[in-house]
Amino acid sequence: MSNQENFVPLGREQRKICWLARDEFFHFLDSKQLVDPAEENVGQDKVGAALRKDYEEKCPSSWVKYFNDLRFRQAHMGEVQKTGNRLL
User: Fold this and answer.
1) Is residue 27 part of a domain?
2) Which parts form a coiled-coil structure per UniProt (predicted)?
3) CB 51 within 8 A of CB 28
4) At what angle do helices 46-58 and 12-31 cross, to 10 degrees?
5) What is the pLDDT of residues 64-73, one digit of tens each?
6) Which among 11, 16, 17, 29 has most CB atoms closer than 10 A?
7) In this structure, is the dihedral angle defined by the CA atoms of residues 63, 69, 72 and 75, taken in order, positive or negative?
8) In percent, how much of the chain has pLDDT > 70?
9) pLDDT confidence bin for 21, thresholds 50/70/90
10) What is the DSSP string of 2-15?
11) Total number of domains in the chain
C-alpha cells in the first residue's frame, strides 16, 4: 500500500486489519525490548521480518510512518518522565 497516487481511504475492516498487523508487530518489538521499528535487529529475526512485512503491506505507508514515529516518541517521553528530565 505504499503507492500514494493510488491511495483509497481504508474502510472499517481494512483499518482493523491494519491495526491488528501493527499490534502484532509492536507486540513482537515489546517482547524483544526494541523501541524503534526501524532498528536493524528487527530484520535479522525471521519472525520480526515477516511481521514487519505484513504490517507494511496491510497499512498505508503514511500510517506506518505515523505509527512508528508515535511509538518512538511515546517511549522517549516515558523515559523523560522516569528520569525527570525536561525536553528543551
Assistant:
1) yes
2) none
3) yes
4) 160
5) 999 999 999 9
6) 29
7) negative
8) 80
9) very high
10) --GGG-----HHHH
11) 1
